[in-house]
Fold this sequence. Notes:
Order of helices and strands: EEHHHEEEHEHEEHHH
Shape: globular
CATH superfamily: Gcn5-related N-acetyltransferase (GNAT)
Helix content: 25-40%
Largest sheet: 8 strands, mixed
Distance between the termini: 24 Å
CATH class: Alpha Beta
Bound molecules: coenzyme A
Strand content: 25-35%
Mean pLDDT: 93
Number of strands: 8
Low-confidence stretches: none
Number of helices: 8
Amino acid sequence: MAQTPVLSTARLTLRPFxxxxxxxxxxxxxxxxxxxMTSDIPHPLYIWQCRRWLRQAxxxxxxxxxxxxxxxxGVGYFCHRTRVGELGFWLGQDYWGHGFATEAARAVVTYGxxxxxxxxxxxxxxxxxxxxxxxxxxxxFNANGRMRTFSIARGHEIDCTTWxxxxxxxxxxxxxxxxxxxxxxxxxRLFARIAGR
Length: 197
Ligand SMILES: CC(C)(COP(=O)(O)OP(=O)(O)OC[C@H]1O[C@@H](n2cnc3c(N)ncnc32)[C@H](O)[C@@H]1OP(=O)(O)O)[C@@H](O)C(=O)NCCC(=O)NCCS
């Protein structure tokens, strides 16, 4: 897996996580309001758990989201062998309500279907998390089912809506170039053009 690059959007920088992010990570994601909407962030959250999580595992494509040089959250996907990625995102509570998650996730979706060479992206939101559903709708995902997923922070299962975005649809929505053009131009240069840099 290629190294996570740095991506820029109008207001945000997306960069690889580093071990030095651990204490800020705990301060942001240690908030129950954040953790309870995810399946995998424990509550309480300890710094040793963050340090372990920050060592990126095979298949993980993770971006730390920075606003005005401060870590505010994370967006990423887990890439399966089938080249289908599972998208996830979270922000510290102080940063909700400004369109940051949509902006950051849009950049990661674009990256995933260009440099990341994904065939599709999936995601899921707990049914009591309508803002996440709204973000996935804005990103072009289609709701395609229901399942029950365990939330570590809550300690029980919750109903989820599942979502999917196919490469063909993403190519139209995000105006991605055909793969032949990308191969000639280099994905990262094309990504920079698509992202408006
Ligand atoms: C979900 C989360 C990432 C949203 O971040 P954000 O930066 O506030 O999101 P955005 O501002 O980009 O978009 C939120 C959208 O949801 C809408 N929204 C907010 N509350 C809503 C509600 N109760 N019902 C319906 N829509 C709602 C907003 O109006 C906005 O849509 P709009 O742009 O059409 O107005 C953030 O709240 C968070 O980190 N929550 C905890 C972790 C989490 O839920 N992660 C996602 C797991 S699937």
